Amino acid sequence: MIVIDAASPVPPFEQLRAQLAGQIHDRTLAVGARLPTIRRLAADLGLAVNTVGRAYRELEEAGLIETRGRAGSFVTAAGEETRERARRAAADYAATVAALGLDAEEALRIAEAALRSPAPSTGTSSGHG
């Protein structure tokens, strides 16, 4: 269930994008699941069509959903691929930390600090939009 908080400082499109992404990552929305049409979801949530469209575009750019023309928008397998890439990166980090002789506690502090800092550009924001 999607809930948009009109009083939140977070823009509605971002609330929607984050909630859908969360449901994809936690498998509430399974790979292959068909999403409501943009117009339908906008009407259901009391949002502008452009607001829902922007959320869907960002999810598509992130590889979490794909739009198949008139057939609609569907959850892709990218959520699984993303999780696997993160697992591999964590394994690589663990190997690097071990090679450097750092203990697990310090390695976790470093990782937590990195997660809190702004992420470096990954090329996904190429000025489109």
Automatic annotation (TrEMBL):
Residues 10-78 form the HTH gntR-type domain. Keywords: DNA-binding, Transcription, Transcription regulation. Gene3D superfamilies: Winged helix-like DNA-binding domain superfamily/Winged helix DNA-binding domain. The keyword Transcription applies. InterPro entries: Tscrpt_reg_HTH_GntR, WH-like_DNA-bd_sf, WH_DNA-bd_sf. SUPFAM superfamilies: Winged helix' DNA-binding domain. Signal peptide: none annotated. Pfam families: GntR. It comes from the Bacteria. This is GntR family transcriptional regulator.
